[in-house]
Specification:
This protein is mainly alpha-helical.
């Protein structure tokens, strides 16, 4: 695209949009998308010039095919000019950048962590001078850089930094799903094409001019380059004569143009061009220093004269005139020429493990264990920096170059493991099918990888259980004498399978096996062993161990997930939910997507527990979409199980029973006891919701017998209150009392706060001593866990109100019944609300609606108001309720007029006038 009198031909619309972007206040992002040669680079030059004229600092980068698999190679181009600003950041952010660029040893940052660090860096740099980031050929940016740039581009509002990206249409790119605003750069109109052609090539005769216009199809680069090629072709001025046949694709025509010039060069010049092309030497405008030693072409002035290269005005280096020149150079080289060039480049980058690996992989044909080891080291480097795709690619290539079957199997197994945790099950399966071990003697790595794939799909849990168990036994008998990563992966996988299988025999066998391993089992794995299996018998002290583990630094996403599951079993999940939410957001952007699914399950469970039932339904829908899209059959039905449980709590019993049937039908024949137990719990909850206590009792005793807690049945202790209440309402007082006492004798109050709450409630419900009952009810209602488990607390209050109405009279019953009714109403537990209201009517209280003051308050507003009345700051409330301080402030702003007050100091008195008081 060229200009007439300083104006670009046919780009008035694009120029207007770019001018508005530069002039706009605040940060923005824009993607220019169009075919090769359509003029995107010229528009990027234009916007850079506009920004420089407005005193912006401009940083340019360009994607190149040769670096498309090097993690953060593209991002480095943007960040290198900002190194001085990086040094001004705090230690945490500097450590993030150190890890990304291979200078640190910490765990790789997530897209969110790195994205936030980049945003802070850009804000710091732009605070002195507005900043424009210009990216050309973004389709060749490596995946890690693309994900971070997309994350940053969506969050530039409010800063003084802007991002403009040029993308080639028809080439898949991570920017395709980045949700950034786009501007299509189309071909020129017929009139505009004529203007440009006549301006640059006025001497063309009419036949050639017509041919060029017809073949260029409005593509500016073709209009500029084709004339000289057509004039030099002596076979005639027809499309078939010039290009070999009519209808040849335009990029191929242009490659023929460049190919003819390349063929005319000397061998040394062509070799230098090939080295430069394979090493990603720039094309077009200067991008500034990259901080990376790149091949420098020398003695190539002949290529400049031929219109193939330009000289960078800033560095003086030779650069390709257009990316199509670079790709044509590579395509014209023979395979042997390309391999030889890669071998030379591997020596150029002998001190850069990842670049060296890239070129060694391309230069080697036959198995070579030394090269394979270099590629594996590069994969480890990429994994540490968060480049899972590059790691999978290098491990796969390392496996191809392995000299032994064992090494090939091990490397493919590691690649499949990373692919599985990244949510790429299909890719993981392909790697497994390509040979991660023999059928008779699979390697430990292949067992880990195949086990996780089978586990996520949920189709073959029992077979995986046997295979993983055997692999651990084999490693114990002949394997490491020190902690080993593969062994830890096997142990954690076995524990996860056991958790879902919920089989007592297998758990006992596993305890025996892990006992024989001694210190080879990691402390984290020991936590999972005690929490996931039988928390009633092994849960003492788990809360404290989980807390210490969460306090550790640099947890991997799978560690966060597994510790989160452990915290669920001891009912302390709420205090770790902010961490889980951040981790889930991070991993959903990219990374361990399979772990993110479990994180969403845990978040949903905590939302159900604390009474955020609307939010829990939204989380469940999100998780169901995600698990379905990735084909994780086990997690799909796990999500449906929790959705069914929530529907039962809300009184939607038909929906609950339909989901119960779906889950049970899928899980029971596969031996997934974890889900069949939840299905039984759905049946119990649904029956209680509609007052069918006999059905509720039968469902509950299907989970555990009265007076005991079935070993390795995670729902056994969770249904304590259900079994007791159902037994009492069906005339089985002895069974109810026996079960409550069994909970006390098993030490459940010491295992978790929720179990303490429901144990005291169950003891209060079942004792015949009025004084003891009052003391136990008071102990339950005053327990700190009451605020975090409002549904259970409301049920205990409802039971207390009913008991008071029968033993102490109507007046004594009104307060606990009112508190219960208000809570059920806020939660949306419709059938429980009606039951509490009916009990209130029996006390002579008028029909309960909502109090005049309280009805406008949502459940969340009431919780915030209570916490604020207790003296907590907005920041402290936000930390407890997983909200930002600003959101807390907004809620309080709406609460004050609803309560008829104007100051925070008046909250306690205003809330004290409500029926349930500030301790609700």
């Amino acid at each position: 695209m060229e200009s007439i009198d300083g104006a670009m031909v046919g780009r008035e619309r694009e120029q207007t949009v770019l001018s508005e972007l530069v002039a706009a206040a605040g940060g923005r992002a824009l993607v220019l998308r169009g075919d090769a040669g359509v003029g995107k680079s010229a528009l990027l030059d234009h916007v850079a010039g506009l920004a420089e004229g407005e005193e912006h600092r401009v940083i340019r980068a360009a994607g190149v095919e040769a670096e498309s698999e090097l993690p953060y190679a593209g991002l480095h181009q943007f960040l290198y000019p900002l190194l001085s600003s990086i040094d001004q950041l705090d230690d945490r952010h500097r450590e993030v950048f150190d890890v990304v660029f291979g200078r640190g040893e910490n765990s790789p940052p997530s897209v969110m962590t790195l994205g936030i660090a980049v945003l802070d860096l850009l804000s710091l740099a732009a605070s002195q001078k507005p900043l424009l980031l210009v990216l050309d050929d973004g389709q060749w940016f490596d995946t890690s850089s693309t994900e971070v740039c997309g994350f940053v581009g969506r969050r530039l509002t409010g800063s003084s930094a802007k991002l403009v990206v040029g993308l080639r249409a028809g080439v898949p790119s991570g920017f395709d799903t980045a949700a950034l605003p786009e501007l299509a750069v189309t071909t020129l109109s017929g009139k505009e094409s004529e203007q440009l052609l006549d301006m640059r090539h006025p001497e063309l005769d009419s036949r050639v001019r017509h041919l060029i216009l017809d073949e260029a199809q409005g593509n500016p680069l073709a209009l500029l380059e084709l004339p000289s090629y057509v004039r030099g072709n002596r076979t005639g001025h027809t499309a078939e004569a010039v290009f070999g046949y009519a209808g040849i694709p335009l990029p191929q025509r242009l490659q023929q143009v460049y190919g003819a010039r390349i063929e005319a060069l000397g061998d040394d010049v062509r070799a230098a061009l090939l080295h430069g092309a394979l090493d990603g030497v720039g094309a077009g405008a200067a991008t500034g220093p990259t901080g990376s030693a790149r091949y420098r072409m020398t003695d190539v002035h002949q290529a400049v004269t031929a219109g193939l290269l330009d000289i960078d005005a800033l560095s003086g280096d030779f650069v390709f005139r257009h990316p199509l020149v670079r790709s044509t150079v590579v395509q014209m080289a023979t395979p042997n020429e390309r391999r030889a060039a890669h071998a030379v480049l591997a020596q150029v980058h002998r001190d850069d493990v990842e670049r060296r690996a890239t070129h060694l992989a391309a230069s080697t044909v036959d198995p070579d264990e030394q090269v394979a080891a270099v590629l594996e080291a590069a994969a480890d480097s990429a994994t540490r920096r968060g480049g899972s795709l590059a790691a999978i690619t290098w491990l796969t290539r390392a496996a191809e170059l392995s000299e032994s079957h064992e090494e090939r199997s091990r490397r493919l197994g590691s690649a499949a493991y990373i692919a599985g945790h990244s949510g790429r099950l299909e890719h993981a399966q392909q790697l497994l099918r390509s040979g991660t071990g023999s059928a008779t003697d699979p390697s430990p790595d292949s067992v880990v990888a195949s086990g996780y794939v089978a586990f996520f799909e949920g189709e073959d849990i029992r077979s995986s259980q046997r295979q993983v168990f055997a692999a651990i036994e084999s490693m114990r008998d002949s394997g490491p004498r020190e902690p080993d990563e593969v062994l830890t992966r096997l142990v954690d996988l076995l524990l996860a399978i056991n958790q879902y299988a919920s089989d007592e025999v297998w758990w006992e066998r596993t305890h025996e096996l892990l006992g024989s391993l001694g210190d080879l089992v990691s402390p984290y794995s020991r936590i999972y062993q005690d929490a996931w299996g039988d928390v009633v018998r092994r849960g003492a002290g788990v809360r404290e161990r989980v807390e210490r583990a969460f306090a550790g630094l640099h947890l991997e996403p799978w560690d966060v997930t597994r510790l989160g599951a452990a915290s669920y079993h001891v009912d302390t999940l709420s205090q770790y939910r902010p961490l889980l939410q951040r981790a889930a957001d991070r991993e959903l952007e990219t990374g361990a997507v399979s772990d993110a699914m479990t994180m969403l399950h845990l978040i949903m469970l905590d939302q159900i527990a604390v009474g955020e039932w609307d939010e829990a339904e939204l989380t469940g829908r999100h998780c169901l979409e995600l698990t379905t899209a990735h084909g994780h059959g086990l997690f799909v039905h796990h999500t449906l199980a929790y959705a069914g449980l929530l529907a039962a709590l809300r009184g939607r019993v038909d929906e609950a029973r339909e989901l119960q049937a779906v889950v049970d039908t899928w899980a029971r024949p596969r031996g997934v006891g974890f889900l069949t137990q939840i299905a039984d719990a759905i049946g119990t909850t649904a029956a209680l919701s509609e007052g069918d206590y006999e059905a509720a009792y039968l469902h509950a005793i299907g989970l555990t017998s009265p007076g005991s807690f079935a070993p390795y049945a995670h729902q056994a202790s969770r249904t304590l209150l259900d079994l007791v209440e159902a037994a009492l309402h069906t005339g089985r007082a002895d069974q109810a009392r026996r079960h409550a006492l069994a909970a006390q004798e098993a030490g459940l109050p010491g295992i978790s706060p929720r179990l303490a709450l429901v144990t005291y409630g169950a003891l209060a419900m079942t004792t015949t001593d009025p004084t003891e009952a009052d003391a136990l009810y008071e102990r339950a209602e005053s327990h700190p866990a009451g605020a975090d488990f409002p549904f259970e607390l409301a049920r205990i209050r409802l039971a207390r109100g009913i008991r008071h109405r029968h033993t102490r009279g109507r007046a004594a019953a009104r307060r606990p019944l009112t508190l219960a009714a208000e809570t059920f109403e806020r939660l949306g537990a419709t059938t429980w609300t009606e039951r509490a209201r009916a009990e209130l009517r029996a006390t002579g209280t008028p029909p309960v609606t909502s109090s005049a003051h309280l009805s406008p308050l949502t459940w969340q507003e009431r919780r915030i108001a209570d916490l604020a009345a207790g003296g907590l700051t907005n920041k402290e409330i936000g930390a407890r309720m997983h909200l930002s301080p600003r959101t807390v402030s907004s809620h309080l702003y709406r609460v004050f007029p609803k309560l008829g007050i104007t100051a925070r100091a008046a909250l306690r008195d205003a809330l004290g006038k409500l029926p349930d008081g500030p301790n609700m």
